[in-house]
């Protein structure tokens, strides 16, 4: 028996309630400045974790960045027992929908990932929500995995506040690194597997287009699966 169609239908039905689609205006890309504090992370692959609303779009954009080896959707901030889609989206946990990015700093630096994050992925002025999705589990947060990343993240947030690009205060937080729990399989590479999904078409595909338009030098036409 071929289970691919039933599984796909299940993924879509479950996923539809994770990332909502009310009638709101589309998010706009912002030309965030290049970081004044450049990341110096040395050789070898590095890991970064970002929380920026529904993880489909965060993962989708980073999966189109040159130098990114993998982007995995998951949960950060809560316990292992709470790391379950239905529990997290109920809003009763400390988790945020997050994405773990593994990248080559010789190709793409952490500070450049931050610039991309604030330019085309997340609005740092939205508190406990992002676009159409509301709740603390959709908060924006930077989760540094090293002292260097923490220093770069703090410096860049300070730079953004001083630049006053947004009319509202920046509320994105830096959170202490805790265990990252990968999300269920149907959430992984969701944009790649479901390019015609209504949420992807309306909210996330435009972010990838913005990445290509704004940062063509780091854009990869190929989606890098996890």
Task: Describe, in plain words, how this protein is organized in 3D.
Helix 2 crosses helix 4. This protein has one domain: Peptide Methionine Sulfoxide Reductase, Chain A (2-Layer Sandwich), CATH 3.30.1060. It has helices at residues 4-18, 55-62, 85-88, 110-121, 147-163, 190-193, 198-214; strands at 46-52, 68-76, 96-103, 129-130, 133-134, 140-143, 173-174, 180-182. A hairpin with a 2-residue loop joins strand 4 (129-130) and strand 5. 34% of the residues lie in helices and 16% in strands. It starts with a helix and ends in a 12-residue tail after the last helix. The chain is of the alpha+beta class and 226 residues long. The strands form 2 sheets. A 6-stranded mixed β-sheet has the order 7-6-1-3-2-8, with helices on one face. Strands 4-5 form a two-stranded antiparallel ribbon. The chain is built from 7 helices and 8 strands, in the order αβαβαβαβββαββαα.
């Amino acid at each position: 028996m071929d289970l691919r169609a039933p599984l796909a239908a299940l993924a879509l039905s479950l996923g539809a309630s994770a990332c909502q689609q009310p009638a709101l205006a589309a998010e706009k890309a912002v030309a965030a400045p290049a970081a004044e504090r450049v990341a110096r992370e040395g050789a070898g692959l590095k890991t970064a974790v970002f929380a920026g609303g529904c993880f489909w779009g965060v993962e989708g954009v980073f999966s189109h960045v040159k130098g990114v080896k993998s982007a995995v959707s998951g949960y950060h901030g809560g316990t292992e027992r709470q790391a379950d889609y239905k529990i997290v989206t109920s809003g009763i946990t400390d988790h945020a929908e997050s994405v773990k990015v593994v990248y080559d700093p010789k190709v793409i630096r952490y500070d450049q990932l931050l610039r991309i994050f604030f330019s085309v992925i997340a609005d740092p002025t939205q508190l406990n929500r992002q676009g159409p999705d509301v709740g603390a589990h959709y908060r924006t947060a930077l989760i540094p995995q090293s002292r260097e990343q923490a220093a770069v993240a703090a410096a860049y947030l300070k730079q953004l506040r001083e630049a006053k690009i947004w009319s509202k205060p920046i509320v994105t937080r830096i959170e202490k690194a805790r265990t990252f729990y990968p999300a269920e399989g149907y959430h992984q590479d969701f944009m790649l597997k479901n390019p015609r999904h209504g949420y992807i078409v309306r909210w996330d595909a435009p972010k990838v287009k913005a990445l290509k338009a704004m940062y063509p030098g780091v854009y990869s036409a190929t989606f890098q699966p996890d």
